[in-house]
Amino acid sequence: MAEQNNNSNRITFKVKHLDEYHDIVIDVNADRYKYKHQQQPIFEQLESITGVPSRYTTDVIFHRNIYPSNAPNALWVPMAFYNQIAFVPNSVMGYGENQDISMVNLRDGERFHIQYYAHYDHFICKRISFRYVLVAERDVPEEGCNRHLCQYQCTASYFKKLKDLVCNDALNEKIDQLVLPLLDHYLLEEEEKIFSEFNIKQYLYPACLGYFDSRQTRFARRFQVYLRTQG
Protein backbone atom coordinates (compact mmCIF):
# COMPACT_ATOMS: atom_id res chain seq x y z
CA MET A 1 0.00 0.00 0.00
CA ALA A 2 1.31 3.43 -0.94
CA GLU A 3 2.31 5.65 1.97
CA GLN A 4 2.90 9.35 2.20
CA ASN A 5 6.61 10.02 2.69
CA ASN A 6 6.75 12.94 5.10
CA ASN A 7 10.27 12.43 6.43
CA SER A 8 12.32 12.13 3.29
CA ASN A 9 12.78 13.79 -0.08
CA ARG A 10 13.57 10.41 -1.64
CA ILE A 11 10.51 8.79 -3.18
CA THR A 12 10.22 5.44 -4.95
CA PHE A 13 7.16 4.64 -7.04
CA LYS A 14 6.47 1.84 -9.49
CA VAL A 15 5.46 1.91 -13.14
CA LYS A 16 4.04 -1.00 -15.09
CA HIS A 17 5.69 -1.31 -18.48
CA LEU A 18 3.88 -4.01 -20.43
CA ASP A 19 3.67 -6.88 -17.90
CA GLU A 20 6.41 -5.90 -15.45
CA TYR A 21 6.71 -3.37 -12.65
CA HIS A 22 9.80 -1.19 -12.36
CA ASP A 23 10.97 1.22 -9.69
CA ILE A 24 11.48 4.93 -10.37
CA VAL A 25 13.38 6.82 -7.69
CA ILE A 26 13.25 10.59 -7.22
CA ASP A 27 15.63 12.34 -4.86
CA VAL A 28 14.96 16.06 -5.00
CA ASN A 29 18.04 16.70 -2.83
CA ALA A 30 20.43 15.19 -5.38
CA ASP A 31 23.01 17.82 -6.26
CA ARG A 32 22.50 17.65 -10.02
CA TYR A 33 18.75 18.22 -9.73
CA LYS A 34 18.62 20.56 -6.76
CA TYR A 35 16.34 23.58 -7.28
CA LYS A 36 15.67 22.77 -10.93
CA HIS A 37 15.24 19.94 -13.40
CA GLN A 38 13.68 17.79 -10.67
CA GLN A 39 11.73 15.84 -13.28
CA GLN A 40 14.80 14.75 -15.29
CA PRO A 41 15.43 11.49 -13.35
CA ILE A 42 12.00 10.30 -14.47
CA PHE A 43 12.94 10.61 -18.15
CA GLU A 44 16.32 8.97 -17.60
CA GLN A 45 14.79 6.01 -15.79
CA LEU A 46 11.95 5.64 -18.30
CA GLU A 47 14.58 5.39 -21.04
CA SER A 48 16.26 2.57 -19.11
CA ILE A 49 12.91 0.82 -18.62
CA THR A 50 11.43 1.14 -22.12
CA GLY A 51 14.48 1.53 -24.36
CA VAL A 52 13.09 4.69 -25.98
CA PRO A 53 15.88 7.32 -26.07
CA SER A 54 15.09 10.15 -23.68
CA ARG A 55 15.97 12.76 -26.32
CA TYR A 56 12.89 11.65 -28.27
CA THR A 57 10.54 12.01 -25.29
CA THR A 58 8.87 15.39 -24.83
CA ASP A 59 6.91 14.98 -21.63
CA VAL A 60 5.46 12.74 -18.96
CA ILE A 61 1.96 13.32 -17.61
CA PHE A 62 0.77 12.09 -14.22
CA HIS A 63 -2.93 11.31 -14.16
CA ARG A 64 -4.09 10.66 -10.63
CA ASN A 65 -6.00 11.96 -7.66
CA ILE A 66 -3.63 14.56 -6.20
CA TYR A 67 -5.04 13.99 -2.70
CA PRO A 68 -3.68 11.07 -0.64
CA SER A 69 -6.90 9.06 -0.45
CA ASN A 70 -10.09 8.16 -2.30
CA ALA A 71 -12.03 10.61 -0.15
CA PRO A 72 -14.84 12.74 -1.63
CA ASN A 73 -12.32 15.53 -2.19
CA ALA A 74 -10.82 13.55 -5.07
CA LEU A 75 -9.38 15.77 -7.76
CA TRP A 76 -8.00 14.19 -10.92
CA VAL A 77 -5.66 16.69 -12.49
CA PRO A 78 -3.23 15.74 -15.28
CA MET A 79 0.14 17.26 -14.48
CA ALA A 80 2.73 17.50 -17.25
CA PHE A 81 6.50 17.69 -16.85
CA TYR A 82 8.76 18.46 -19.80
CA ASN A 83 12.06 16.91 -20.80
CA GLN A 84 14.92 19.39 -20.81
CA ILE A 85 17.05 17.55 -23.36
CA ALA A 86 14.20 17.23 -25.89
CA PHE A 87 14.11 20.98 -26.55
CA VAL A 88 15.82 21.92 -29.80
CA PRO A 89 17.36 25.34 -30.54
CA ASN A 90 14.71 27.90 -31.48
CA SER A 91 11.91 25.70 -30.19
CA VAL A 92 8.54 27.44 -30.16
CA MET A 93 7.89 26.51 -26.54
CA GLY A 94 10.31 27.72 -23.88
CA TYR A 95 11.61 25.29 -21.27
CA GLY A 96 10.65 26.12 -17.68
CA GLU A 97 13.47 25.13 -15.36
CA ASN A 98 11.64 25.02 -12.05
CA GLN A 99 9.09 22.26 -12.42
CA ASP A 100 8.28 21.17 -8.89
CA ILE A 101 7.73 17.40 -8.88
CA SER A 102 6.41 17.61 -5.31
CA MET A 103 3.20 19.09 -6.71
CA VAL A 104 2.22 15.58 -7.84
CA ASN A 105 2.12 14.52 -4.17
CA LEU A 106 3.72 11.15 -4.96
CA ARG A 107 3.73 8.46 -2.29
CA ASP A 108 6.26 5.71 -1.65
CA GLY A 109 5.18 2.47 -3.27
CA GLU A 110 2.47 4.07 -5.39
CA ARG A 111 1.83 2.23 -8.64
CA PHE A 112 1.18 3.59 -12.11
CA HIS A 113 0.43 2.03 -15.49
CA ILE A 114 2.13 3.56 -18.53
CA GLN A 115 0.01 4.71 -21.47
CA TYR A 116 2.18 5.31 -24.54
CA TYR A 117 1.68 7.97 -27.19
CA ALA A 118 3.54 8.96 -30.32
CA HIS A 119 2.84 12.45 -31.58
CA TYR A 120 4.28 14.98 -33.97
CA ASP A 121 5.60 17.70 -31.73
CA HIS A 122 5.56 21.21 -33.19
CA PHE A 123 6.69 23.14 -30.15
CA ILE A 124 9.59 21.32 -28.48
CA CYS A 125 11.59 19.06 -30.78
CA LYS A 126 9.84 19.36 -34.17
CA ARG A 127 9.70 15.66 -34.93
CA ILE A 128 7.70 12.54 -34.09
CA SER A 129 8.17 12.10 -30.37
CA PHE A 130 7.16 9.97 -27.42
CA ARG A 131 4.89 10.89 -24.54
CA TYR A 132 4.19 8.91 -21.38
CA VAL A 133 1.00 9.18 -19.38
CA LEU A 134 1.29 7.58 -15.94
CA VAL A 135 -2.15 6.51 -14.74
CA ALA A 136 -2.62 5.61 -11.07
CA GLU A 137 -3.26 1.88 -10.80
CA ARG A 138 -6.48 2.34 -8.84
CA ASP A 139 -7.91 4.17 -11.87
CA VAL A 140 -7.11 1.30 -14.26
CA PRO A 141 -9.94 -1.21 -14.89
CA GLU A 142 -9.22 -4.89 -14.38
CA GLU A 143 -10.50 -5.58 -17.89
CA GLY A 144 -11.14 -3.41 -20.91
CA CYS A 145 -10.57 0.32 -21.06
CA ASN A 146 -11.79 3.56 -19.57
CA ARG A 147 -11.19 7.24 -20.19
CA HIS A 148 -7.84 7.04 -18.39
CA LEU A 149 -6.17 4.12 -20.16
CA CYS A 150 -6.54 1.92 -23.25
CA GLN A 151 -5.49 -1.68 -22.59
CA TYR A 152 -5.24 -2.37 -26.33
CA GLN A 153 -2.53 0.28 -26.66
CA CYS A 154 -0.44 -1.19 -23.82
CA THR A 155 0.64 -4.35 -25.62
CA ALA A 156 4.16 -5.33 -26.63
CA SER A 157 3.32 -5.28 -30.34
CA TYR A 158 1.70 -1.83 -30.25
CA PHE A 159 4.51 -0.40 -28.12
CA LYS A 160 7.11 -1.73 -30.57
CA LYS A 161 5.36 0.00 -33.48
CA LEU A 162 5.44 3.32 -31.64
CA LYS A 163 9.06 2.86 -30.58
CA ASP A 164 10.18 1.95 -34.11
CA LEU A 165 8.32 4.97 -35.48
CA VAL A 166 9.84 7.42 -33.02
CA CYS A 167 13.37 6.02 -33.40
CA ASN A 168 13.34 5.91 -37.21
CA ASP A 169 15.55 8.92 -37.94
CA ALA A 170 15.46 8.45 -41.71
CA LEU A 171 11.65 8.45 -41.78
CA ASN A 172 11.52 11.42 -39.43
CA GLU A 173 13.83 13.40 -41.68
CA LYS A 174 11.58 12.78 -44.70
CA ILE A 175 8.46 13.76 -42.78
CA ASP A 176 10.08 16.86 -41.27
CA GLN A 177 10.93 18.20 -44.71
CA LEU A 178 7.25 18.03 -45.65
CA VAL A 179 5.59 18.98 -42.38
CA LEU A 180 7.73 21.80 -40.96
CA PRO A 181 6.94 24.25 -43.83
CA LEU A 182 3.25 23.83 -42.99
CA LEU A 183 3.59 24.94 -39.38
CA ASP A 184 3.71 28.68 -40.03
CA HIS A 185 0.37 28.45 -41.80
CA TYR A 186 -1.32 25.97 -39.44
CA LEU A 187 -2.23 23.66 -42.32
CA LEU A 188 -3.21 20.78 -40.09
CA GLU A 189 -5.31 18.99 -42.69
CA GLU A 190 -2.36 18.96 -45.08
CA GLU A 191 -0.19 17.66 -42.28
CA GLU A 192 -2.58 14.77 -41.62
CA LYS A 193 -2.57 13.92 -45.31
CA ILE A 194 1.21 13.54 -45.15
CA PHE A 195 0.89 11.22 -42.17
CA SER A 196 -1.66 9.17 -44.09
CA GLU A 197 0.64 8.93 -47.10
CA PHE A 198 3.37 7.50 -44.87
CA ASN A 199 0.79 5.18 -43.27
CA ILE A 200 1.46 6.44 -39.74
CA LYS A 201 -1.64 8.53 -39.01
CA GLN A 202 -3.27 5.67 -37.10
CA TYR A 203 -0.38 5.72 -34.61
CA LEU A 204 -0.39 9.49 -34.13
CA TYR A 205 -4.17 9.76 -33.75
CA PRO A 206 -5.19 6.49 -32.07
CA ALA A 207 -8.76 5.73 -31.06
CA CYS A 208 -9.60 3.35 -28.24
CA LEU A 209 -12.20 1.08 -29.79
CA GLY A 210 -12.73 -0.78 -26.52
CA TYR A 211 -13.69 2.38 -24.66
CA PHE A 212 -15.70 3.68 -27.61
CA ASP A 213 -17.64 0.41 -27.93
CA SER A 214 -18.37 0.30 -24.19
CA ARG A 215 -19.67 3.86 -24.25
CA GLN A 216 -21.82 3.09 -27.27
CA THR A 217 -23.23 0.01 -25.52
CA ARG A 218 -24.04 1.96 -22.35
CA PHE A 219 -25.67 4.72 -24.39
CA ALA A 220 -27.76 2.21 -26.34
CA ARG A 221 -28.96 0.60 -23.10
CA ARG A 222 -29.89 3.96 -21.58
CA PHE A 223 -31.68 4.95 -24.77
CA GLN A 224 -33.67 1.70 -24.75
CA VAL A 225 -34.71 2.35 -21.15
CA TYR A 226 -35.70 5.88 -22.13
CA LEU A 227 -37.86 4.60 -24.98
CA ARG A 228 -39.60 2.08 -22.71
CA THR A 229 -40.51 4.79 -20.20
CA GLN A 230 -42.03 7.13 -22.80
CA GLY A 231 -45.62 7.10 -23.92
Throw out a few tags for this protein.
single chain, 231 residues, alpha/beta, 6-stranded mixed β-sheet, 6 helices, 6 strands, disordered C terminus
What does this molecule look like?
- The protein is an alpha/beta fold and 231 residues long.
- Helices cover 32% and strands 21% of the residues.
- The chain is built from six helices and six strands, in the order ββαββββααααα.
- The chain has helices at residues 40-50, 156-167, 169-183, 188-197, 201-204, 209-229, and strands spanning 10-17, 20-27, 57-63, 79-82, 111-121, 127-136.
- A hairpin with a 2-residue loop joins β1 (10-17) and β2 (20-27).
* Gyration radius, rounded: 20 Å
**Helicity range:** 25-40%
| Outline type | globular
- Terminal residue distance: 52 Å
Mean pLDDT: 78
Structural class of the secondary structure composition? alpha/beta
